[in-house]
Amino acid sequence: MVRVLMVCLGNICRSPLAEGILKSKVNTETIFVDSAGTGGWHVGELPDIRSMEVARKNQIDISDQRCRKFSVQDFTDFDLIYVMDSANLRDVLNLAGSQYEIDKVKLILNEMEPGMDKEVPDPYYGGNNGFDLVFEMLDAACEVIAKKIEK
Ligand code: 4NP
User: Fold this and answer.
1) pTM of the model
2) Residue 127: which H helix or E strand, with range?
């Protein structure tokens, strides 16, 4: 079992999409995918309606997801921790307790363009266009991740 955690700030826009997209590309009997946020403002809530809509437009249902906060236990529970931007990276790495845990954490777009440190922009305060762009970026990144972890 490979265990993959997607992390953003709120766990209502980007990481729920990343979770849903990766689940759609892998065998979920052998690959466990979850998501969490570094901030706790929306714990227990559904994903943002705009994320649910862009997912549904692409035949993915993420309405079963509920927001939760990232915790140090996640370093034990997951093999790979993908973050969306440099603020998420800093916040997650601040909680890491060892080099082994640090090595699990990666900027998700580096899977497509290694070392470029590109970020998935936070679409929360923007319009719907932002969500289409985020979907495209995450779809491309998850395609690479799926190939890698199913090997
Ligand atoms: P996300 O977007 O990190 O992609 O889920 C955000 C959602 C909510 C907030 C910030 C970012 N917020 O400040 O409530």
Assistant:
1) 0.98
2) none
Q: Judge whether 122 counts as a catalytic residue.
A: yes
Site to probe by mutation for ligand 1, drawn from 6, 7, 11, 12 as the one with most ligand atoms within 8 Å of Cβ, is 12
Domain map of the chain by residue range?
2-149
Q: What is the pLDDT of residues 13-61, one digit of tens each?
A: 999 999 999 999 999 999 999 999 999 999 999 999 999 999 999 999 9
Give the max Cα distance, the chain.
41
Catalytic hit among 48, 74, 122, 142: 122
Query: Which fold is adopted by the domain 2-149?
Result: Rossmann fold (3.40.50)
User: How many A from CA of 151 to the centre of ligand 1?
Assistant: 33
For 145, list phi and psi in degrees, rounded to 5: -65, -45
Distances (CA, A) of 72 to 11, 38, 78, 94: 16, 11, 11, 10
